[in-house]
Write a structure and sequence with these properties.
- There is one protein chain.
- By secondary structure, this protein is mainly β.
- The chain is built from two helices and nine strands; from the N terminus they run αββαβββββββ.
- Strands 1-3-4-5-6-7-8-9 form an eight-stranded antiparallel β-barrel.
- A hairpin with a 4-residue loop joins strand 1 and strand 2.
Length: 141
């Protein structure tokens, strides 16, 4: 209630300025590693593959390996409230796939964990698109 009152008073809060948990997922993410219960860790260096996943605002996930699109799926996001005494988690539900994933986004890091009970933790970092500004050519004096 205090936040709503403050937003109404100051006029600086909007729906766009308060991102939902889904908004944090949108973008391109580059795979950094997959760890399985502290045993063997897979990385781009030891697999020889660069993997990127892209989540868009229209609910499409695209999976790339070494720059080639290898898979795509529609997705939705929901909050899994967990059981008694357990914290809620956010879940990605892929249509057409048997497995879904829990996820968390902290800063530019995306953590995915399969919901099938396997203890695999996939870590991605956000791909920041470079914006290049071209200045008009200077005329020689």
């Amino acid at each position: 209630m205090a936040v709503i009152l403050l937003c109404n008073t100051l006029g600086s809060c909007s729906k766009d300025s308060m991102p939902t948990f889904e908004e944090g997922l949108i973008g391109r993410w580059e795979w950094q590693q997959t760890a399985n219960d502290g045993k063997h860790t897979l990385t781009p260096s030891n697999t020889g593959h660069r993997v990127v996943v892209e989540f868009d605002r229209r609910g499409r996930a695209r999976f790339y390996q070494d720059g080639t699109l290898i898979s795509a799926a529609a997705f939705s996001v929901r909050r899994d409230m967990g059981g008694f005494g357990q914290a809620s988690r956010h879940m990605i539900i892929y249509r057409g796939y048997q497995n879904n994933q829990y996820y968390s986004v902290i800063g530019n890091r995306l953590q995915l964990q399969d919901t099938n009970g396997k203890l695999l933790a996939h870590t991605y970092t956000r791909v920041i698109t470079e914006v290049s500004a071209q200045l008009p050519a200077q005329k020689p004096y």
